[in-house]
Write a structure and sequence with these properties.
256 residues, mainly alpha, Serine Threonine Protein Phosphatase 5, Tetratricopeptide repeat
Length: 256
């Protein structure tokens, strides 16, 4: 009986011994701003901004000048659509580290969402002026989109081309070139831009819809009809569904 008691005691001591290092590791993690930041980024990348904010806030409690955590908070609040709060964090990030070009680009996007287009353009230009920036195509594309919204076609095309020079596989920039060409009524050029984008990202609904529209406007009626028929069962948005129905009705009349 005594032996049995001793064995149980030894097992309990072993369990306590094993649990103790785990608790120490967890306690260390609670005080490690980098670990808390990494958790925040994990949840941000998984589309869970509230969870992300919880861990990023913890990182900033531990290290208030943690620039990448401030940038992460800006992204998380952007995801939530709380743009003023996002801008506050991104501005604080840049006050802490003016050379953080990612934050410049992110702040420009937030300003654009807030309708502050001049301030947005200023941030994007600062970002593209950093020749060491690893993702310069992004602020170039954002400038192109900004000028497209303002119906400044030449400036928009210039910046879209600059984005593609850096990353020729940037689907968004090829698609935007197509939209700009359509507005300029250069439909054949728009078709080529959309086709390039589709080669890079096949079966993407919006790209194929844009291509079908450009084919119709360019007079390629049979090709447009074939593509709209293919797209019709895949359309989820009610407005897009209605547009496809209208196009097909027009095409049926014109191809008689």
């Amino acid at each position: 009986m005594k032996i049995h008691v001793v064995l149980i005691t030894l097992v309990c001591l072993t369990l306590c011994y094993c649990a103790s290092p785990e608790k120490r590791v967890e306690k260390a993690r609670q005080k490690d701003p980098r670990y808390q930041y990494n958790l925040g980024v994990f949840y941000l990348n998984n589309g869970q901004p509230d969870e992300s904010i919880k861990y990023l806030s913890r990182a900033l409690e531990l290290q208030p000048d943690f620039d990448v955590a401030l940038d992460g908070m800006g992204l998380a609040y952007t995801m939530k659509g709380e743009f003023q709060t996002a801008a506050n964090y991104l501005e604080k990030c840049l006050a802490t580290n003016p050379r953080m070009t990612d934050a410049l680009n992110h702040l420009g996007s937030v300003y654009q969402e807030m309708g502050l287009l001049d301030k947005a353009a200023q941030q994007f230009r600062l970002a593209v002026s950093d020749e060491t920036y690893h993702s310069r195509e992004l602020p170039y594309y954002n400038l192109a989109r900004l000028y497209y919204i303002q119906e400044k076609n030449e400036e928009a095309m210039e910046y879209a081309d600059s984005a593609i020079l850096i990353d020729e596989r940037m689907v968004l920039a090829h698609n935007l070139r197509g939209l700009i060409y359509e507005r300029m009524e250069r439909y054949q050029d728009a078709i080529l831009s959309y086709q390039t984008a589709i080669k890079l990202q096949p079966e993407e609904f919006n790209l194929e819809y844009n291509l079908a529209s450009a084919l119709y406007k360019n007079g390629n009626l049979k090709q447009a009809q074939k593509l709209f028929i293919k797209l019709r069962p895949r359309a989820a948005d009610p407005e897009i569904k209605a547009n496809i129905a209208k196009y097909l009705e027009l095409l049926e009349k014109e191809l008689r």
